Amino acid sequence: MLMDILEIVMAILRAVWLMVPMLIPNSAAVLFGGGTPVDFGKTMKNGTRILGDGKTWNGLIGGTLSGVILGVIQIIIMGFLNQPNWTINPCITCALPILFLLAFGSMFGDMLGSFIKRRIGKKRGAKFPIMDQYDFFIGAMILIVPLQWTWFYDNFIDGVYLAGFIGLIILIPVMHRVVNIIGFKMGKKDVPW
Ligand code: CTP
Ligand code: MG
Predict the structure, then answer these.
(1) Measured in angstroms, how far is the CA atom of residue 55 from the centroid of ligand 1?
(2) For the chain, which residues make up each domain, given as ranges?
């Protein structure tokens, strides 16, 4: 019983650790963001912005690169600790496509969220429950699940790893809340969500 719980806790920690390249980009985008918007200020036929001023090229590129670079550092750390099982892939070049899909997918989901927000008439920064917390996760999954199915299955569906994945899904809103409150206190975010 105790062993089972320990195994599940470890699976959750492992899931969070492996998904750091997906979890970091949105926060990094807040730090790097500003400048030219991704939609170049363009609007739809009804006059609403395609994405809005909250989605910038600096944020998109800075966020994606942060996720990939952090992911590489994580693999190096686990290499030193001799824990290949706690890496996306112990071989860095083999891990790169997955790192990119996780980090870029995260930013892609964030943009998808803004696209939907603008279509339903929500202004930049307006609250959008569930989407605000999960858009980056949905974006990363849209890319990872079909394009890296074997890797995803082996690491997040197979055996106790599924419990880790479910734990990660439950923890996402909690982590999101904590990070946004920190960002707000640092003066990096206008609103604490
Ligand atoms: N940001 C950015 N580029 C991105 C994503 C985020 O520059 N691709 C920066 C922006 O300064 C943005 C801040 O990070 O205001 C917070 O991100 P987010 O909460 O996703 O954007 P919102 O301003 O809330 O805009 P939206 O309503 O479109 O989600
Ligand atoms: Mg927001």
Answers:
(1) 5
(2) 21-159
Does the Cβ of 54 fall within 6 Å of ligand 1?
yes
pTM for the whole structure:
0.96
Rounded to an integer, what distance in angstroms lies between the CA atom of residue 41 and that of residue 53? 7
For the segment 25-80, what is each residue's pLDDT rounded down to a tens digit?
A: 999 999 999 999 999 999 999 999 999 999 999 999 999 999 999 999 999 999 99
Ligand 1 pocket, 117 CB below 6 A?
Answer: yes
Among residues of the chain, what percentage have pLDDT more than 90?
Answer: 94
CA dihedral 148, 150, 153, 154 (to 10 degrees): -120
Give strand pairing partners of 37. Answer: 56
DSSP string, 35-67: SSBTTTT-B-TTS-BSS-TT-BHHHHHHHHHHH
- CB burial string 106-127: b at 16+ within 10 A, e below: bbbbbbbbbbebbeeebeeeee
DSSP state, residue 174? H
Rounded-to-integer distance, Cα 105 and Cα 161, Å: 21
